[in-house]
Fold:
Amino acid sequence: MKKFFLSIYALLLLVGCTSDDSYGDDPGDDNPAPEENAVRLSSDATFGNILTNSEGFTLYFFAPDSNGESNCSGGCIDAWPVFNASELTLDNGLDEGDFGSITRGDGAIQTTYKGWPLYLFGNDANAGDANGDGSGGVWFVAKPDYSIMITRAQLVGRDSGGTETNLTGNYEPGDEQTFYITDAEGNTLYSFINDTNSKNNFTAEDFSNDPVWPIFEETLDNIPSTLDEADFGSIDVFGRQQVTYKGWPLYYFGQDAQRGDNFGVGFPAAGIWPILNTDTEEAPEAETDKTTYNVTNQAASAYLFTGEGLTDAVNPNITLKRGETYEFVVDSPGHPFLIKSVQSTGTGDTYNDGVTNNGSSSGTISFTVPNDAPDTLFYVCEFHGPMTGTLTITD
Structure:
């Protein structure tokens, strides 16, 4: 009988039906929960889609890392630990091709996303915290859908002769860390000093010069939290869309061979193609189209006009249009040039509506013709009656 019970017990052990935990698994462990992916795509109420580690802790980018190398070391790493996914598994919506790894100067391996090294933040106490975003203006939650990023680095300009010079944020020789905006992968963006608000004055209609300064074409989705979305816009450039920042059209530099390069700030000379940041002033509005006449004199007998098809024309009659601007660049010492409502010498009856610097004998007189200007005005020398002509005003 004893052998019979021993045989039954042995059979129960084989099929796992005893209550002894040392011999069988808890029925609840038959389908253990799957491990979370090494990099997760989480939804945050403030930031939208963000990258986290397997435990749900937020990952971050460091602005000075635009060149793809980690510039956080020493005490920085104590607060911002390196993230490394030794086995890269990803949530749906993430592309393995966007991830990589670098070997840091201290020998540690660090995972990168779109070339940006990834970090955790020591003051994120709980999964889902994002306390590090915006810290020092250089730390930002890692998002998969940034269109613009910001960096802080030394400007190294390269002039038209190929000479490279360290530059400050004022484009003077010197060493200084400068903030500026880049695309999502750390490539420097520039403006052009001859552009005006929302007006590209560089790109040729056939885009033949686009390889030198390619326009920045991107659908803007998300930007770092220290930038203002309202500062961005887009303009049409011969059928293509170019992103603007504070009204400045944005460009790449064709000679920037890799992310982090900013050689364009020195080409062809320092400051002609500036970088942009939160200190950048709004692009200037385009000046109203104006017509210019150069005015000299023939002794005390006549004014001579050059411009708009005229060459040293003697006291010509000029037609002006309401709403348009005209400049008379006067160089006739001793013969003040006056715009008047009556064709007479002296300073009486001068017409000053829309006129600046009226009566100058050496300078620029600007005249924006008002909509209610009379049909006929005159230009007259203050002292010499023969120096005069008619200004016919039309719509």
